[in-house]
Design brief:
Layout (H helix, E strand, L loop, with lengths): L1 E7 L4 H5 L12 H16 L6 E4 L3 H14 L3 E3 L39 H16 L5 E6 L1 H12 L19 E7 L4 E9 L16
Helix pairs in contact: 2-3, 4-5
Length: about 210
């Protein structure tokens, strides 16, 4: 049996300043560090364990991973397949600066000229998930970003990116996580939780809407 936890990184400097981060590197804020530590403490208190942490190589994810790994004494692998969506020329721009005609959800057109389309991101998320399922059954913690985690949920739930305009958007707050169980014999997924952030103190529970 596979137990897979999909975790969004802690609050980053890009989150707090309201820019589209994409694959640009931004470190955690002090709040983001606190969020990661509170999550690690909660998991340690509740004897939550993982066989392996697989993290995006971007700084905001890798810092989150290192805090949790140090607390729980779990090994980390860094996998660029779990990096956030490439937003092309939009990276580093605030949402207020963006032309209202930008279509973030077009299934086939690359975003920001040279970025990834929704289908590109869906395919990458599917390949990243498949790589986990080619490992031995066990408990895996994936630390990544809101955009690609949405597409990972699409893969798990059988939602196609072509229908995104009418499909749900899965919200991951900073250090929000979803948990799944996969049975390789029946090929069935079970959803255990979505966007769990109940461990955060009121001071750490910043509800920033943007996902990357």
């Amino acid at each position: 049996m596979y137990f897979i936890t999909l975790l969004r990184h802690g609050e980053s400097e890009g989150n707090s300043s309201g820019v589209i981060q994409g694959q640009s590197d931004y470190p955690l804020t002090q709040t983001g560090i606190k969020q990661a530590k509170e999550l690690a403490s909660d998991w340690k208190l509740n004897h939550t364990s993982f066989d392996l942490i697989i993290s995006s190589s971007l700084l905001r994810a890798s810092q989150t991973a290192e805090i949790i790994a140090d607390s729980l004494q779990v090994p980390i692998e860094f996998d660029p397949a779990w990096k956030e969506r490439n937003f092309g020329s939009l990276q580093g721009i605030s949402l207020q600066e963006i032309n209202q005609d930008v279509d973030f959800f077009h299934p086939y057109q690359p975003i920001g000229g040279s970025g990834e389309s929704q289908l590109d991101l869906f395919i990458r998320a599917g390949q990243a998930l498949q790589n986990i399922l080619r490992r031995s059954p066990g408990s895996y913690l994936i630390i990544s970003h809101g955009g690609i985690l949405n597409k990972a949920l699409y893969v798990i739930m059988g939602i196609t990116p072509q229908g995104h305009y009418n499909s749900p958007i899965f919200h991951f707050g900073n250090t929000g996580y979803a948990q799944f169980r996969y049975n390789p014999d029946s090929h069935q997924w079970a959803v255990l939780c979505l966007n769990n952030r109940g461990f955060l103190s009121p001071q750490s529970d910043h509800k920033l809407w943007h996902q990357d």
